[in-house]
Automatic annotation (TrEMBL):
UniProt biased composition (Basic and acidic residues): 1-17
Subunit structure: May be part of a spliceosome complex.
Annotated keywords: mRNA processing, mRNA splicing, Nucleus, Spliceosome
Matches recorded under InterPro entries: mRNA_splic_SYF2
Compartments where located: Nucleus
Family: Belongs to the SYF2 family.
Protein name from the UniProt record: Pre-mRNA-splicing factor SYF2
Location, primary (coarse class): nucleus
The organism of origin for this protein: Glomus cerebriforme
GO cellular component: catalytic step 2 spliceosome; post-mRNA release spliceosomal complex; Prp19 complex
Spans annotated as Disordered: 1-24
GO process terms (BP): mRNA splicing, via spliceosome
Lineage of the species this protein comes from: Eukaryota, Fungi, Fungi incertae sedis, Mucoromycota, Glomeromycotina
Pfam families tied to this protein: SYF2
Amino acid sequence: MNIDPQREQAKKNEIHDSLSTNEVSRVEKMKARIDCLQKLRKRSDDALQANRQEVYEEFQRKKTNPIRQERKREAEKLLAKQEAQIRGENYERKRFWDYSAESVEKWEKKQEKKAKKANTGFTDFNQVAHKKYKKQINELRPDLVAYDEQKIATTLTTIENGKVVYIDTESSFYRDANSLQYASVDNVPSAQAVDRLVTDVNKQIAQRERFSRRKKVDDDNEITYINNRNRRFNEKIGRFYDKYTMEIRGNLERGTAL
């Protein structure tokens, strides 16, 4: 049997070419994986560096003294005012150039509202009650959806002159002083309204306890006074002299005094 050397060489070359192609594709895949791994490592390093920078900035913000920052702003404001005076400019007018008319109007309304809500001191209980009432009204958030549903369910609607008019035939929604619907058993508040009322009452109780100036008296303590005035006098004396008379009082109570 004769073997053709050319055919044999061609087969060897074909096998070598196929092996070379597989090797090249494998090398290319390996390079792509290495590139992807390097990109992932770079992203991880960038994220770690960014986190460290944010932590450092937050630490610097907490470390900054607010009093120093306020003094710095005041110094910058004073410097800008002096520079404006040197140039012959109106500092207040120039400062308002940075604000729009809408923002200035909003700021003035906010300051006016704040001035109205400011505590001007106690005059009488009527003023305190009125102020508390206004505060509760401002905090009131009515349920408009439930309001509209109740109005539609209890009134009739007609159109007059192109406008929708609600007519309350049974005086159950638009009630006047002569209506007897206030005592109706059908008017039951919702669970959300009850919870809101309970929360508001608990909030008022907590505020009274926090702002009350009346000091609580411990009933377990020894009574060494005959009235409240004498109690306050004893407390004032005790703040200054108890540390000196503690040993003498202890000896008198034990009966070991000389």
